[in-house]
From TrEMBL:
InterPro entries: Isoprenoid_synthase_dom_sf, Polyprenyl_synt, Polyprenyl_synt_CS. Keywords: Magnesium, Metal-binding, Transferase. It comes from Streptantibioticus cattleyicolor (strain ATCC 35852 / DSM 46488 / JCM 4925 / NBRC 14057 / NRRL 8057) (Streptomyces cattleya). Belongs to the FPP/GGPP synthase family. This is Polyprenyl diphosphate synthase. PROSITE patterns: POLYPRENYL_SYNTHASE_1. GO terms for biological process: isoprenoid biosynthetic process. PANTHER family: (2E,6E)-FARNESYL DIPHOSPHATE SYNTHASE, GERANYLGERANYL PYROPHOSPHATE SYNTHASE. GO terms for molecular function: metal ion binding; prenyltransferase activity. It holds the Pfam family polyprenyl_synt. It comes from the Bacteria.
Amino acid sequence: MTPAHEQAVLPAPHTSDVPALLERGRTLATPVLREVVDRLAPPMNTVAAYHFGWIDAMGRPTEGDSGKAVRPALALLSAEAAGGPCEAGIPGAVAVELVHNFSLLHDDLMDGDEQRRHRDTVWKVHGPAQAILVGDALFALATEVLLEVGTADAGRATRRLTTATRKLIDGQAQDISFEHRERVTVAECLEMEGNKTGALLACASSIGAVLGGADDATADALEAYGYHLGLAFQAVDDLLGIWGEPAVTGKQTWSDLRQRKKSLPVVAALAAKGPAAERLGELLAADAKNPEIDDFSEEEFATRAALIEEAGGRAWTTEEARRQHATALDALNGVVMPEEIKQCLFALADFVVVRER
């Protein structure tokens, strides 16, 4: 199986130290995040700690994988892009990370995913009720964290976060509805992914600037960067959802096909002309009427993946990731910022698109 990233190679990454940027985001945001999560009543605080990778299923401290921390890094950089200290973006970094994890807890349950970051998901360990409650609690905490800043700019930031969260939920609802439709257009899929992924990355890329007092024009330009970066991120995620290596992604082979997702490679392949697109359409139409898709053999999923690639869905999605990446970088031309901060934003964009998980 060829990893998706081999078809999504971009020009050589910019020279900024991305691991250091991500680590800075973790270092500054995690202590505040832990303090906020500790406000939750038992057992929600423990369940949340397990989800974040701070403890194992038995409650023992662990150094588990808590994610890439792209959103906190973006929130801190956005504060600096607007001319302020990175610390001004910490409440935004924490709030966005809380909303992101609220969505993960609910998504894992709705999608039936039993693994995240190479270990059992919260609903699998603690049950569906706890996954729902803790997700809801994290969303409430996100608003609480921002409003506690107590400034007019905190109110502006909160409005942006709640709007982004509503769009994220819209996107998840669209994604679920698409699973039960035989056909979805490319435009519909891009709208869904812009809501589900682009909106929160857009918020992360602007919220630090807003907290630091940036005007709307600056915040909007940073938001556009994050939105298109989110679309690029999701395009790569869609490639990995079909062709990613399970040992790297932490998910099953053909995971998106198992969940009947109408992701970009699938939708682009169905929109193409030719025998492969027609055969794929016939198979997926039959699958939609079959509740036993989980019983398919590996060969049946491999057949569908091969037809998607033959019809051009993989190549189109790879090119779409490049297009959205370029559009994200162009948006930064609308912001006057220190050159080193711009290079950091460029580097993070490269990192998001050139990845294996």
